[in-house]
Amino acid sequence: MILFTAINGERKSTIMAKAHLNYRQIMKYINILVINELVVERSNLSEGSTMYHTTDKGKNYLDMYEESKAYNLTSNLYVVGKEIKI
Predict the structure, then answer these.
(1) Which of 19, 53, 56, 78 qualifies as a cystine partner to 9, CB 3.0-4.6 A?
(2) Which pLDDT score, from 0 to 100, does residue 86 have?
């Protein structure tokens, strides 16, 4: 949810609200995402705040995640024995 929320750049407080995280949690996860280059931190001088943006690497991760969800859905339906035309 953090990567998706930060695609166009968001403040930490907005990400916290949309991802339903508290301050301790958002700090932990933002740091992990920044270290792994999935999110970049940028200063917004006009507003005097820090914005978080999903990087291209983060967007690629989101794409792969969405593809894996579609695959898992198909696999689960096959196991159940139902055929669904998409």
Answers:
(1) 53
(2) 46
Question: How far apart (Å, rounded) are the C-alpha atoms in residues 77 and 30?
Answer: 35
The dihedral through the CA atoms of 36, 42, 48, 49 has a sign that is negative
The tens digit of pLDDT for each residue in 14-56 reads 999 999 999 999 999 999 999 999 999 999 778 788 999 999 9
Distance (Å, rounded) from C-alpha 4 to C-alpha 57?
Answer: 12
Q: What tokens does 80 get?
A: 């159940």
pTM over 0.90: no
Longest dimension (CA), the chain: 57
> What are the phi and psi torsion angles at 40 (to 5°)?
-120, 145
Looking at residue 72, its amino acid is N
What is the three-class DSSP state of 83? coil
